[in-house]
UniProtKB/TrEMBL annotation:
Name of this protein: Small ribosomal subunit protein uS5
Domain S5 DRBM span(s) in chain numbering: 17-80
GO process terms (BP): translation
Chain intervals with Basic residues compositional bias: 203-221
Segments for region (Disordered): 202-221
GO cellular component: cytoplasm; ribonucleoprotein complex; ribosome
Keyword field: Ribonucleoprotein, Ribosomal protein
SUPFAM superfamilies: dsRNA-binding domain-like, Ribosomal protein S5 domain 2-like
Highest taxon listed in the record's lineage: Bacteria
Coiled coil: none
Family note: Belongs to the universal ribosomal protein uS5 family.
InterPro entries reported in the protein's UniProt record: Ribosomal_Su5_D2-typ_SF, Ribosomal_uS5, Ribosomal_uS5_C, Ribosomal_uS5_N, Ribsml_uS5_D2-typ_fold_subgr
Any one GO molecular-function label of the UniProt entry: structural constituent of ribosome
Amino acid sequence: MAEFHKKWSFKEAPKEFTEVLLWIDRVTRVTAGWRQLRFRASVVIWNMKWTIGLWVGKAWEVVVAIEKAVRDAKKNLIKFEIDNWTIAHDIEAKFKAASVMLHPASEWTWIIAWGAIRKVLSVSGIKDILAKRYGSTNWITNALATIKALWMIKPAKKVAKKEEVVVEAPVKVEAPVKEAKVEVKKEEVKETKKVEEKVVKAPAKKAPAKKPVAKKAPAKK
C-alpha cells in the first residue's frame, strides 16, 4: 500500500496542463515613505486538447506570483483547431496598441516570429506558421494579441465551405439583328430616270394684270 500511495501521490501525478514561464519582471511601487518591491510573472498553460491560456500574476515572491498566474490562466482558457500542424487561413488580431498577423506555412517551415509571439506559438503546439507584429513592442500586449489571434482560428472544414464557388448557368447573349440591305438594280434606276424626264411640268398660270383706274377731278361750280 505504501508503494501504491508513493507511485500515485498528488505531487507526482501527471498534470493536465503544461506550464511555461514566459518571463519574470521586478516591479517597484513608490509610496509615501518607501518603495514596495514585487515580482510580476507571465505564464502560459497548454494541453494536448488545443486549449491555451495566458495570465500575469504579481506577488512579493516569485513562487507566489507564478501560482497566481497559473490559477488565473486556468480561468481564462481558449480552444482552437489546427490542420496539419498549421492554421487554415490568415488571421489579423489587435489588442490595445499591438497588432499581430498570422499566416499558414508549408511543412518544415517551422515558426518564424519574434519575441513574445514566438514563445506563445511554440507553446501552442503549432509547428509551421508565419507571424508579423505591428504597433506596440510591449511583450505582454503582443502575447495577449497572439492569444486573441489563436482564439479567432476557424476549422479547415468551415473555411473550405466558404471558398466553394457557386457555378452559375451561362447567360446567352443575343447577337444584334442586322438590317437587310435593299439592293436596287441599275436597270430599275434607269427606268425611274426616264419616267421623270417624260413628266412635263404644267405651266404656272399668271394672274391677270389689273388696269389702272383714272381718278376723275371734281367738277367746278
